[in-house]
Amino acid sequence: MTFRKWSLWFVAICFIFSFFSVSVHAQTSQVIRIYLDGIWLKGDVDPYIDPKVNLTMVPLRIVSEGLGAKVTWTPKSKMVTIQRSGTVITMIVGQKTVTVNGKKTSLQAPAVLKSSRVMVPLRFVSETLGLQVKWNAATKWIQMISKPGQEIKGAWVSTVFHLDWPSSQSYGQKEVQVQQYVTMLDELQSMGMNAVYVQVRPAADAFYPSAFAPWSKFLTGTQGQNPGYDPLAFMVEETHRRGMEFHAWFNPFRANTGSASETFDAKHVAVRHPEWMVTAAGGKMYINPGIPAARQEIIDAIMEVVRGYDVDGVHLDDYFYPSSGNFDDQSAFLAYNPKQIANLDDWRRDNINEFVRTLGQSIHAVKKEVKFGISPFGVWRNQSADPTGSATNAGITAYDDMHADVRTWIRNNWIDYIMPQIYWSFSYSNARYDVLVDWWAREVDGSNVKLYIGHAPYKLGTSEAGWQTADEIVRQLQYNETRPQVRGDVFFSAKDLRRNPLDIIKALKAYYKV
């Protein structure tokens, strides 16, 4: 008993003094993974515990190249040189000293060569390359963060139906709309938000001067009426002025927000190309994703923004095909099916795949730095329909109902990030929050696609299971911290944060330490 107590005490002390010094016996049989800013750095040599010094040894080249550093290996002298952002590091295999910008410093253990990879202690990597490093003993994950505190903390800003901005009372009043936006950003930033995802194309219209779409009616009350200024230009400038990111949010295929009989401006696609329209349940009109020319015009409209504005990203939500009801696209299925896809559902998914792939290529051909991401419905597929799906019992799914083949987008790296709308609590048995976060985290593993999570503050205070306290949101954020794949959190929507249900503002300020 005495020996056992001493062993436990010794392990605890080792953990306190070195977060990556762990029980060798407990870990030598398990693979250690490295995540850099949410991306799994896969290599031909895994990190391992050096039993002689009880330290985690990591492959320096893989980490350095993941950061964009230049690495040079000189076989004759067994010297490796790493150059990044004005820092030059040189070391020789077998030596316990390393030179950083001309100054020698000691290593806790000498660099070693394993399968042609230079392995160095984890602490050296974190201190020399300026990384924040977290060790998860339960999962054996090393999480490295290059810019701590700069993870995405955002809010969706819906313009459709005046949900978030601008108000219906501001029609045609530039000064009022400007002040409303400034006030909204002030409040969001005070809660810790550093990004906004603003809806600039609610329904085949525009919050900017466009050659392909009329001015949105949500600016003036009349579709096509010039508001007297460029709202998108103003929003981008104002958002950047305070150091926040601006992501332009597009609804690509939705063509109206009322009935099929509503009046459209002459520039609207329903007037110019009525043959592209499909009217679904409730009179909702969609631009048919199965028509190649229609898809291309939507891409051209989005590229107007990419070329003309300093946006940080292009964002799409889950409005692809409607999730229920009849969608009459049989004629397009017959006319535009060069791949001879036999199944209508597979053809629809292929249409969306082609759209996502082409749009991503178009964006990055013009501006590589612009992030392209999508926020699909939170359940890809239930396990009852696909054994690789999530352990959920959702009534609709992204793949089967909205024809969003998200897995293909991720595996082909067509997008920069995925932001599933996980709008359920830990207590909701049909689609538990933790079950879905873990599923999506596994899904992005091995890709270059980052994972952000969409949260539902709009449910706070409702009767749905788990939403009777603001602590639900805090618990979700804390859970995300344990998953290195999760690199951001975005809340739907701005108005639901600002109205402060169950004192969520106080909870977020405490969590984000603002």
TrEMBL record:
Residues making up the signal peptide according to the UniProt record: 1-26
Domain Copper amine oxidase-like N-terminal: 36-141
Gene3D superfamilies, per database record: Copper amine oxidase-like, N-terminal domain (3.30.457.10), Glycosidases (3.20.20.80)
InterPro entries documented for this protein: Cu_amine_oxidase-like_N, Divisome_Glycosyl_Hydrolase, GH, GHL10, Mao_N_sf
Domain of life from the UniProt record: Bacteria
Domain Glycosyl hydrolase-like: 151-462
Keyword annotations of the record: Signal
Entry protein name: Family 10 glycosylhydrolase
